[in-house]
């Protein structure tokens, strides 16, 4: 028998007791000793490995952090293997293609090895954009002047000259410095909080270009084909809502992505902007279905006025932030993606309306993914498409024109100048569309120099490519299909073709009844039509049936529009005195059975799309929440309270239960959980006194005669109780409003700092200016 007593605290001794006869004891002793030796050997190897790693880290620190001197700053010293920012094949390939002007190769490569500057964009359509810009310029940016962190001088953020209205900025602050530096704690928390609210977006500079070149107006129907993670989609939504006085723009954005999980990231991005004009769908962009809409009782194919085609790419323009690209880059990546990129772009122009604009973009510098795709598309369009000249649309942006000649290289370094040079065993890897057009006349008409290539060293950005296409007429293969269908119609007399559908390649075939039709066929067709009409009448837009389309990812709940006689709506309409113009038919829920807990709202155009395409597309999300069921609400006359997400959409239609409050009242509402009525101004107290309990709207109107106070309106959802008044506003939105009113709110990092008031230097009366508690946050103080 062997009994083992493990080491006690502070000791490294193990006690082994062996009992038994002599031979047994000897055998056991040998076994135990062998175990000790094996264990000691293993422990020795681990210790030696740790020592070796520590020595390597020490050597790297002594050398300054790595080959380019930036390893420590980029946070790669903590035991991770360094990525050497060298790739001989990359340099050989792009030197040969000459995409970089002569004499600029060294600055180009040096820029690629530098970390990418942090960039942020202020949400342009919100009325608070000017206030946020004022706050950034006059408070946070001023605090960064002459600031040194870890021996590095912090540059004050600079505006992107080519972005309109000073709404985009860049700085040399890396994410690591922002997160770890105590001096930048407040600025970092400001960025995080405002990003959650949707007021600021952390977005790479070059990524902001495609939406700007789409030239979007509020009435445009827009398709974003490869939308995730959603920063460009957010820009498109902002452009739709350029006029904040119009709650329901005529246009909409349909944002698509093939990856089901990334669709939910897309939903999160879009939800921050609280728009009723966004729909997220889940399809392969190269075969995204043709949708139909109802136009005065007549079915029409939906064509988009604007399409953003930001296709999957090899990403060698992102080397400054995605360091893995340095060691993984080969020409094979581009060769494998070219076909998919061309299919997606082709599907995009098929769905584009005549006169519409499509922007094709990649974060790659490779002409195989860029000019080759555009040239192939232009060639097979036979004049239906043209490249737009956008050289003057973004003044201040530095760019290089597209190239007209290039070669194709395999990953083993073998070059090919034309398709005829490619051996048969390589013709599955390399395709004819990858090569430049040899016909000089065709090449001249294409105007490939109108493409835009952004090089990293010109304005300290990432690498990027953009081309803007305008559709002048239907695509030729759609014309041919339309002619074929007309000929077939003339021969048989049995079908008529919808011209609009034929143009898109999705031909609508309508059977004309012959003289004598089979009764069974008639009955079947009648039942099918009745079922379809009943589904549309019920306003139920469920997921497509499995036979029609293979579902993948999570199963989504249906979208159920409220019927005209739904008993749910009259109490809501009466309680809030909704305007007769309120579009109640646009209200929907996500459940067919049981209690409806949330009410959502979409624009009438998206309602049209949903009702007519439930079997064609998989919708992940649409609409904004406008009402939530409240268990206590029924006793006060309405079971639904207002939701903050949709208040700016609903407010123009509400004519009752609105309380105008002063700025001091707003501060009380946002900094106290459930304040008593006695804490509010006498005017507010009077207005609330005769109002029935329940959900209310709290409105702040700026006073132009007091320019030092907040100069943008605020609309909050609230609840009037028996003796109190409270605001139902998410945490980050509370912080946003407080900052706009001159209140500095930030979270303490250390436990001992919790619930301590922190005021800015120069506060003369800290007792007067300190707020003791912000719901959902730890500390807050007014900066006078």
UniProtKB/TrEMBL annotation:
It is found in: Nucleus; Secreted, Extracellular exosome. Its EC number is 2.1.1.203. Residues 108-472 form the SAM-dependent MTase RsmB/NOP-type domain. It comes from the Eukaryota. S-adenosyl-L-methionine binds at residues 226-232, 257, 284, 310. One of its GO terms (biological process) is tRNA methylation. The active site is at residue 363. GO terms for molecular function: tRNA (cytidine-5-)-methyltransferase activity; tRNA binding. It catalyses: cytidine(48) in tRNA + S-adenosyl-L-methionine = 5-methylcytidine(48) in tRNA + S-adenosyl-L-homocysteine + H(+); cytidine(49) in tRNA + S-adenosyl-L-methionine = 5-methylcytidine(49) in tRNA + S-adenosyl-L-homocysteine + H(+); cytidine(50) in tRNA + S-adenosyl-L-methionine = 5-methylcytidine(50) in tRNA + S-adenosyl-L-homocysteine + H(+); cytidine(34) in tRNA precursor + S-adenosyl-L-methionine = 5-methylcytidine(34) in tRNA precursor + S-adenosyl-L-homocysteine + H(+). InterPro entries: MeTrfase_RsmB-F_NOP2_cat, MeTrfase_RsmB-F_NOP2_dom, Pre-PUA_NSUN2, PUA_NSUN2, RCMT, RCMT_NCL1, SAM-dependent_MTases_sf. One of its GO terms (cellular component) is extracellular region. Residues 43-78, 753-784 are annotated as: Disordered. Belongs to the class I-like SAM-binding methyltransferase superfamily. RsmB/NOP family. This is tRNA (cytosine(34)-C(5))-methyltransferase. It comes from Gopherus agassizii (Agassiz's desert tortoise).
